[in-house]
Specification:
Blueprint (H helix, E strand, L loop, with lengths): L2 H8 E8 L4 E10 L2 E11 L6 H19 L3 E5 L7 H20 L4 E4 L1 H9 L6 H12 L9
Parallel strand pairs: 1-4, 4-5
Antiparallel strand pairs: 1-2, 2-3
Length: about 150
């Protein structure tokens, strides 16, 4: 077995995305023989002003840059949820679609995860708040300071 085949079996890099129209969260993890290491995480601010199309371009450009930098084996993306505000749902769907397009542009496979499933697997509570999820992830990955803009 050559080195590339061995790496594929023992290592995997996953880019996780939580798309939004004002703030997009992301995290890059390395899974190596049963251990998980955070390579990078953060938020991308689109700002409260500006045309929606320009925010979508920023999402595309930044996701593409993350893919090019970390060369993930797959992308984990928060699946759409159903809310009461149709305009918000439409904008969020566009942000998710643009994030997917950036990954697919580099032929990175995408898996979508329901928000409740993610919260359940991280905190044990499918209705956990973003703050609860952040605190649990800080514990799991020994992160000292909570990222801004939660």
């Amino acid at each position: 077995m050559n080195k590339v085949d061995k790496k594929a079996i023992t290592e995997k890099i996953i880019l996780g995305l939580d798309p939004g129209t004002n703030v997009m969260g992301y995290g890059v993890i390395l899974i190596r023989t049963g251990s998980v290491t955070v390579l990078q995480f953060g938020v991308i601010q689109m700002g409260k002003t500006g045309a929606h199309a320009m925010k979508l371009k920023k999402i595309f450009d930044r996701v593409l840059a993350l893919v090019d930098e970390f060369k993930p084996d797959e992308v984990a993306l928060e699946a759409p949820f159903f809310g009461k505000n149709v305009q918000s749902m439409l904008k969020l769907g566009r942000a998710q679609g643009v994030a997917m397009s950036a990954a697919l542009y580099r032929e990175i496979p995408i898996t979508e995860y329901a928000p409740k499933k993610v919260k359940q697997s991280v905190t044990g509570n499918g209705n956990a708040s973003k703050e609860q999820v952040a605190k649990m992830l800080m514990q799991i990955f020994s992160i000292k300071e909570i990222p801004k803009l939660f």
